[in-house]
Amino acid sequence: MKGFPNYLVALALMALACSIASAYDPAPLQDFCVAANSSTDAVFVNGKFCKDPKFVTANDFFFQGLNIPRSTANLLGSNVTILNVDEIPGLNTLGISLARLDLAPYGLIPPHTHPRASEILVVLEGTLYVGFITSNPDNRFFSKILNVGDVFVFPIGLIHFEFNVGKSNAVAFVGLNSQNPGLITIANNVFGANPAINPDVLIKAFQLDKNVVDYLQKKLFLSNILSAGDRSES
Ligand SMILES: *[C@@H]1O[C@H](CO)[C@@H](O)[C@H](O)[C@H]1NC(C)=O
Ligand SMILES: *[C@@H]1O[C@H](CO)[C@@H](O)[C@H](O)[C@H]1NC(C)=O
Questions:
Q1: Contact 79/70 with Cβ under 8 angstroms?
Q2: Which of 32, 148, 150, 176 has a CA positioned 20 to 30 A from the CA of residue 168?
Q3: Distance of CA 61 from the midpoint of ligand 1 (Å)
């Protein structure tokens, strides 16, 4: 970069860094930008359309009832209640969201990833076996048994799970650093793809027999573990 003043080079590098960083939730450009679904009465755009601040109320930042236990009477024995920008429109552009996890004894939140968020979990009731796995080629597995008051972190994008290994119900809350973290549940995604993936791909990838792949592709994988907000489309 001969001939260019150093500060210009530094500025160019900073601009580059900023454009890379903007692949994540953007930093807020104003105090708030409450989500509106249409542009009809919106004033500016940053993430979602923003509601005209004149019409914003405290309820745009409010949700009630996360103290109520959710039903775990399903295949997995678990229930995830996520509060992201669709439930709390005031979260728009703020880069955070929250979820409540309910797990019956032996209940599982199956291996999944959040493509846009790291997660921090705190156990309020019960005992959870949790873990995440790092990228190839190491595939290192980090796991813990968590009791009440214990906290664990799942780095962005990595496959992780929560399993109730206690004798009573378990409850945990998680924070995520995206207004819309996204959810990819591995089994659902791979074996429940719609339309189905050519079984030859799965036979080879997972080193399985054809009949096992057929069996798995016919299985119904519980996809609505998020009682609100399973958003594969965005
Ligand atoms: C926006 O759309 C979501 C999903 O369809 C809906 O749940 C939410 O209530 C809508 N919000 C507003 C402010 O209309
Ligand atoms: C999660 O709990 C809610 C409230 O108890 C219930 O309506 C919903 O069906 C449950 N979801 C699943 C997948 O069991």
A1: yes
A2: 176
A3: 14
The amino acid that residue 4 corresponds to is F
What are 59's two structure tokens?
Answer: 């309820």
- Distance, in Å, from the CA atom of 164 to the CA atom of 19, rounded to the nearest integer, reads 41
Note the pLDDT tens digit of each residue in 175-200.
999 998 989 999 999 999 999 999 99
pLDDT of residue 21: 42
User: Domain map of the chain by residue range?
Assistant: 58-227
The answer as to CATH 2.60.120.10 being correct for domain 58-227 is: yes
Nearest ligand 1 atom to the CA of 51 is 13
**Closest Cα to atom 13 of ligand 1:** 36
Q: Which helix (H) or strand (E) holds 6?
A: helix 6-21
From the list 174, 141, 175, 145, the residue with the least C-alpha distance to 158 is 141
